User: Fold this.
Amino acid sequence: KNLFGQLDGIPAKTNSTLRNMALAIIMLRAGMGLNLRKLRENSLTTILLSFVPCLCEATTIAFTAKFIFPSLTLPFAFMLGFCIADVSPAVTTPILLDFMKQGLGESKGIPSILLAAGSVNSVVAIVLYSVMWEFAWTDSVSGEKLAEIVAVKLVAQIVGIGVLAGFVLGRLTEFGWRYTSSDTERLLLTLLVAMSTLFGFKHIGMGGGGTLAVVTLGATLQNKMQDQEELVKP
Assistant:
């Protein structure tokens, strides 16, 4: 904050850009660390971990906040809950990747399950925050509006953007890798695609899906190129 001698730190827009660049790199690393075979074997566990802890945390925080601050309306209390319940990838990803290096929990695929579940958890928290936002400013929200929020922001972001777009972009990046023999060029290409994905989807209001797409991109690269590990490791 004091790096450039400014009393108010770096500009908010620059701060946001730097944080999102860091997020893209973190999620790319998370995706390239996923063991897709273990994820398929433990798909139900991954799905439950993506939703249940987030909902329980947010509910507990909401009712605790409501108890401490009686004037706080329930939608605002839940908005607070989903803010806090969101998993921080900057904290979890390096720890879980370190567990992988040490071989801790690898036989059961625990680090991969937690990496994937944490990524989906973020999207869930963002979408449910948006749902609570709609209720916070009005007495009622129509069923159509609620269905639109859930369908567009939750299903479309997780399945359409997070999984499908991430897979397609991963295959395109892999295609680009095969036309260069330079590790530096592969690194720059991968970072360019990851940054474009995250910032592009954020620009159209689908930031959660974009974040998940970067994870899928990394996982696709790792899975498709694992027969040529010498290309992935550098």
